[in-house]
């Protein structure tokens, strides 16, 4: 039987870089919220002893795809703990809506959905914390998607504290460029000394993103898109980009602006939600 599972987008409502660690990674403070929009995975389990990706990505070997890696890591962990028959397998297809390199969590969300869905379908019985521990090896954003609740994140993004920001409407736009996260974090101009502050303090301040100045300087397409959106609503970069977003109180206001988007800009309108669509699917909501 084929089952359907959402892999929602996320926004970094704010993002502050508070220091650089000896291992080269950066400490940060960020506020994650999900969107009611994203990729969709179709998953069926079988006894083939194989993980088969029915929709491969051109130029990416299946073994390197986060979807396949997540499934194989869960399978190995389950078999190591004697929670899964030896020949358990799965067939996975994805309807891809989220742009790669967009800063809205496409690959991380896909991986998290595979972990959560196969844990359920295979009945391997891992807790969300155990799944997150597997997922963080695939990417720092995977745990927040596994847990499925809006969160204030610290460390490299793995230390999560539940949060409940206002659920606004967002216009999310992609300028058509792909931005590598390491390029942004290695830029000598990146702010790395923003003071650490409590969530209550940060929620009372205007939300900003320390990566935005570097990205706007390096990518004129992002700079132009942020400048255009700022004419209509509070707008900023999410993550390290390339997507930018503008916040609105109503869906209709967001859609009116999307209709005015410059040529070459791809975008969508979605509601910010504090409970992930994946979590709702798991609960049968």
From TrEMBL:
Pfam families linked to this entry: GHMP_kinases_C, GHMP_kinases_N
Active site: 10, 141
Biological process annotations from GO: isopentenyl diphosphate biosynthetic process, methylerythritol 4-phosphate pathway; terpenoid biosynthetic process
Gene3D superfamilies the UniProt entry points to: 3.30.230.10, GHMP kinase, C-terminal domain (3.30.70.890)
Subunit field text: Homodimer.
EC number(s) recorded for this UniProt protein: 2.7.1.148
Signal peptide (from-to): none
Biochemical pathway: Isoprenoid biosynthesis; isopentenyl diphosphate biosynthesis via DXP pathway; isopentenyl diphosphate from 1-deoxy-D-xylulose 5-phosphate: step 3/6
Its biological purpose: Catalyzes the phosphorylation of the position 2 hydroxy group of 4-diphosphocytidyl-2C-methyl-D-erythritol.
Domain named GHMP kinase C-terminal: residues: 210-259
EC primary class: transferase
Coiled coil: none
Family to which the UniProt record says this protein belongs: Belongs to the GHMP kinase family. IspE subfamily.
Catalytic activity: 4-CDP-2-C-methyl-D-erythritol + ATP = 4-CDP-2-C-methyl-D-erythritol 2-phosphate + ADP + H(+)
GHMP kinase N-terminal domain span: 65-148
Alphabetized UniProt keyword annotations: ATP-binding, Isoprene biosynthesis, Kinase, Nucleotide-binding, Transferase
Highest taxon listed in the record's lineage: Bacteria
Name of this chain's protein: 4-diphosphocytidyl-2-C-methyl-D-erythritol kinase
Keyword Transferase: yes
Organism this protein belongs to: Candidatus Pantoea gossypiicola
Binding-site list for ATP: 99-109
Any one GO molecular function term: ATP binding
């Amino acid at each position: 039987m084929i089952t359907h599972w959402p892999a929602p987008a996320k926004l970094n409502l704010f993002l502050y870089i508070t220091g650089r660690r000896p291992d080269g990674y950066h400490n940060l403070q960020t506020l994650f919220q999900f969107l009611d929009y994203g990729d969709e995975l179709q998953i069926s389990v079988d006894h083939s002893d194989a993980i088969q990706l029915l929709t491969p990505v051109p130029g990416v070997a299946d073994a390197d795809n986060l979807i396949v890696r997540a499934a194989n890591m869960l399978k190995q962990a389950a078999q190591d703990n004697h929670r899964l028959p030896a020949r358990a397998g799965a067939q996975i297809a994805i309807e891809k809506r989220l742009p790669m390199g967009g800063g809205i969590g496409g690959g991380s969300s896909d991986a998290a959905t595979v972990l959560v869905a196969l844990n359920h379908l295979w009945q391997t019985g891992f807790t969300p914390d155990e799944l997150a521990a597997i997922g963080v090896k695939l990417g720092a954003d995977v745990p927040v998607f596994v847990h499925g609740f809006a969160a204030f994140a610290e460390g490299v993004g793995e230390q999560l504290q539940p949060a409940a920001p206002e659920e606004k409407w967002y216009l999310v736009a992609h300028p058509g460029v792909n931005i590598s996260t390491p390029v942004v974090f290695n830029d000598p101009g990146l702010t790395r000394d923003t003071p650490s502050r409590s969530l209550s303090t940060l929620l009372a301040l205007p939300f900003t993103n320390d990566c935005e100045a570097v990205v706007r300087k390096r990518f004129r397409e992002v700079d132009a898109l942020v400048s255009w959106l700022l004419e209509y609503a509070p707008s900023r970069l999410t993550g390290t980009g390339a997507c930018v977003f503008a916040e609105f109180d109503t869906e209709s206001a967001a859609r009116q602006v999307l209709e005015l988007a410059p040529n070459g800009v791809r975008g969508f309108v979605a509601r910010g939600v504090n409970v992930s669509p994946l979590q709702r699917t798991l609960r049968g909501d």
